[in-house]
Amino acid sequence: MNPKTNLQELLNKYYAGTITDEERILLEEWYTRWNPEQQVVSPEEIDQLKADVWQSLNVNERPAATKWLWPKIALAASVILCLTAGIYNYLSSSKAQQQPLNAKARKTDIAPGGNKAVLVLNNGVKIDLNSQTNGTVAKQGNVKIVKTANGRLAYAPDDIDASTVVYNTLSTPRGGKYDLTLADGTRVWLNSASSITYPTAFKGNERTVNITGEVYFEIAHNPKQPFRVNFKGHTIEDIGTEFNINAYDDEPVVKTTLVTGSIKLSRNSKSVTLRPGQQSITSLSNTDIAVQEADINEAIAWKNGLFKFKKAKIEDVMRQLSRWYNVDVAYPYGVPKTVFSGEMIKDANASQILDMLTYFKVNYEIAQQNNGPEKKIIIKP
């Protein structure tokens, strides 16, 4: 097969979402070595790419399924971003020129977010979890609050029946994320600029929590004690399942995506029941609850350490970057009309993500605000 055609097919599959794990690895490895002046990829180069990829994984032979290797690949591979117009046609054009790195942006680069959260106890005491060593950070009645070795917060009740129920709040700032295990064993992941308010022990006929921002739930099964999540006038009722809620104030819609199990979503006097793979969408301007098939990988990419975009406007992209890098974004020259699809690893400096935009004539500057520590991303033509 003509290597140029082979590369075109890989790019078409990437955009269509049908690319295999092995094909994705080869495409990203090719991208890291791409030379804008090179018009043809030789068969020898493709063979060398294959050999180098598998050698870098330290495996003796190819496994039957490579999906488990993806997180390791993603951390090592360069950021890849595809325009819906077609990356290949652009990169193979004789007019394509690699943009020089922005020295000023490099000087004022922004590190990625990480595990950052504040725990607020029922008496108003605030605990910065970053400053806490592993072990017990507080005690609420008969419940110990423990920071585990892997950076998660966990509630360990000695005796639930004897526990006095009080409420705590865990919140992440912009540039933060955190994992939490509730007293019933339910696991919770908080994205940046998010919060959850919950009891230190679950007693009675139901388990109820309140959230803001974006939160992923893995509910501990208990049919005798349904789990309810309240957010922005919505209520989710669940017995034992996994789902993601995106309810940021700066997003135009609220999205609830069901991964496994079943949930009932209620809003005002209306309700829907979601099945796995479905997503509900609501907005302030409409009281209806729309239901559509979801791209699960896109909805939970943040939890897996990725940005994933599918025909996203640049404002959608930059809102996510703004929260993760704790930075404001300005469009003094207007908002570019570019639409993007693709994946980017979150464990990268802001300039590494933003540099990809420059290949498609969306330029930027990372500027300090008022000569202080605060920074701003300025999108330029």
UniProtKB/TrEMBL annotation:
GO: which molecular function terms? sigma factor antagonist activity
Instruction: Please list the residue ranges annotated as the Protein FecR C-terminal domain.
Output: 307-368
Q: Which Pfam families match?
A: FecR, FecR_C
Domain spans labelled FecR protein = 169-263
The UniProt transmembrane annotation reads none
User: What Gene3D superfamilies does this protein map onto?
Assistant: 2.60.120.1440, 3.55.50.30
Superkingdom per UniProt: Bacteria
Record-given protein name: FecR family protein
Native organism is Mucilaginibacter oryzae
